[in-house]
Design brief:
Length: 163
């Protein structure tokens, strides 16, 4: 079950955090930390599905040059374009450090994919996201939420339900 957390904005006032589907409706570019070259890996076929439904997917993997036909970046901070959502697969990296990097590039949301090991730093990661006003979701799946919500993305500002 996905865990969503409340977020404090710059004025220090708490507001409800967006759920994964709402995040996807407002996102057009997704950076995928831990993107995989293996077509059978969740970290390959799930982001590739998002790309097929219109989102721009930017792979982050220090050990690959290109995935999904997109240039790979070694770190989030290397991405020159705006990123709306940082989608994190099992990377062995510290979740809090990934949230710091997401905040540093101006991402508005961080999602830790289901069944991945991010436990040691999730409390700190939640706190960092909360303080920065960044939506933070643990244990969810963007591809599943895209399917359940029948979501497609036709470019910036045009993501939403296919119905």
């Amino acid at each position: 079950m996905a865990r969503h957390f409340s977020v404090r904005g710059s004025a220090g006032l708490a507001h409800a955090m967006r759920n994964t589907r709402d995040i996807l409706k407002q996102a057009s570019t997704i950076a995928v930390v831990g993107a995989s070259l293996d077509p059978l890996s969740d970290a390959h076929w799930m982001p590739e599905q998002m790309q097929q439904f219109g989102w721009r997917v930017i792979p982050v993997n220090a050990h690959a040059d290109s995935i999904f036909g997109e240039h790979c970046y070694a770190r989030l901070s290397d991405i020159p374009d705006r990123v709306d959502l940082v989608d994190v697969f099992d990377t062995g990296e510290d979740a809090a450090q990934l949230v710091r990097e997401a905040i540093g590039i101006g991402a508005r949301a961080v999602l830790l994919e289901s069944d991945k090991e991010h436990q040691p730093a999730s409390v700190e990661a939640r706190h960092l996201a909360n303080e920065a006003g960044v939506d933070y979701v643990e244990d969810d799946c963007v591809a599943m939420q895209r399917t359940i919500g029948c979501l497609v993305c036709k470019g910036p500002e045009l993501c939403g339900s296919a119905h």
